[in-house]
Design goal:
Largest sheet: 7 strands, mixed
Bound molecules: flavin-adenine dinucleotide
Distance between the termini: 22 Å
Helix content: 10-25%
Strand content: 25-35%
Structural class: alpha/beta
Radius of gyration: 20 Å
Strand order of the largest sheet: 6-5-10-11-12-9-13
Number of strands: 15
Number of helices: 8
Mean pLDDT: 95
Order of helices and strands: EHEEEHEEHEEHEEEHEHHEEEH
Length: 313
Amino acid sequence: MNSDADSTIEPVTIVGAGIAGAACARVFHEANVPFRIVDRGRAPGGRMSSPELHGRRVDLGAGYFTVRDQDFTTVVADWESKGLARQWANTFGILKPETAPCTTTGPVRWATPNGLRSLVRNMLDGFEIEDSTELTELPDGHVVVAMPDPQATRLTSVPDAVDYDAVIAVACGFDGLDIPFRDAAFVNDHPDIDFVVDDGARRGDGAPVLVVHTTSERARQHLDDPDGAIAPVLDALRELSVITTQPAWTHAHRWTFAKPAAQHDSNFALDERDGRFVGLAGDQWCDAGVPRVESAWRSGTDLGTALVQRLSL
Ligand SMILES: Cc1cc2nc3c(=O)[nH]c(=O)nc-3n(C[C@H](O)[C@H](O)[C@H](O)COP(=O)(O)OP(=O)(O)OC[C@H]3O[C@@H](n4cnc5c(N)ncnc54)[C@H](O)[C@@H]3O)c2cc1C
């Protein structure tokens, strides 16, 4: 059990140690609400995943994050002061078949020297995490379910559950790189890939590693065999003149539930069921804008705050 908890409050189990679950844990910690946090993965972070591949961390899930939410700004300023996050780029390339590359400028994208997972680890620093623990039903007591709806519905009912699009992320290591964009590029009108990122630029170590996200249509064809997506991804990179040589190594990662195809019109759900509270959070609980890292943080924070209030009544 985590935190110097108030023993008069019944503990809450947080299922899911992605950024939504981690944000909720921070709220409970600050309010002295006792909690445990459980995740089926070997490490926290969920879709902010940065495994070590060929001697360095590679961001295989979320590629970066944006900071529009005022409260999230404070969290990110703390990460920046600790050297955990940095402003990366606001201009990305645009690649399109048979068209010269161009650029587009948008909000500042933030990246991390140690991989995005390091941010979730930082939020959970000092808490005991029950990892490699897949729950197949709701545990007893109050529960927060912080994960995509298709996963949450395996544990409990979810009102108007939203579907998720799949992505296969393919990392490719080269001996050297000479690419027609800086930092990253959106790929338009291609059947197989929709985003390419220079992971060395993103992470700041200059390593010649690209990470490519497939379109959901391409991903769906390879959910049983993610490695099958590697050849079409490399063909697409050649067609778009991103590479001319074979990579030294490749690695494919399947995200069956990568991005919500729609979103709920509230930031979380919280019900009393059979005498206990059950809360739902995650990036799909996003009443404004596009579901993303910062909306998952907002969702977990708002659910945690609401649950603390209900438990204190
Ligand atoms: C390929 C890809 C690219 C992306 N790009 C961006 C981007 O550029 N910018 C951006 O802002 N966002 C991006 N995102 C989205 C971003 O990663 C998510 O919005 C955010 O990480 C969601 O966090 P979460 O806590 O809601 O869910 P998750 O990170 O999915 O966390 C859910 C957790 O629940 C656990 N879990 C599930 N079922 C169980 C169970 N039964 N028992 C125990 N544990 C369970 C999982 O292991 C997981 O750790 C991207 C995502 C992907 C996959």
